[in-house]
Input
Amino acid sequence: MITNKTIINAIALRCLEAHHYEAVKKIYNLGIVTGHATFQTEAPTWEQWDESHLKTCRLAAVDQHEIIVGWAALTPVSGRCVYSGVAEVSVYVHPDHQGKGVGKKILQELIHESEKHNLWTLQAGIFPENIASLKIHKALGFRKVGYREKIGKMKGIWRDTILLERRSELVGV
Output
């Protein structure tokens, strides 16, 4: 687990905690506005978010002014014990910091942390229009495993998602 700052390109990665949530929620809402980050229409409360995400592998990226510029967390894919080592990835970066390597560094650390917590498969469902996210995931070892056509409606329009997964080479081998 990250206990102290890990500095990457003037960005420090820390454990995401409850007191970070207002900034996390703001970045999440900015992702929602794009229409290419999530099917969600509004960010959940802290309690809802906390309940739905794993208690480990929660990262906040802060700049030199201690402002949160991105975050990542994992959601369990199932409550069944057979899937205890499988989680879904969420990575969000504030629009002002996109294209600077922040998302890739957060995801890279999330992968590292997930393996320390005995997770063997990470998966992501990404809208085809979210080219940057697809590139980052593929660069870090995620592979396309499927395409979900018209999996859900957003504002009355059917949307597709690309399914990616990354199998650990360290855990569950």
Notes: The chain has four helices and eight strands.
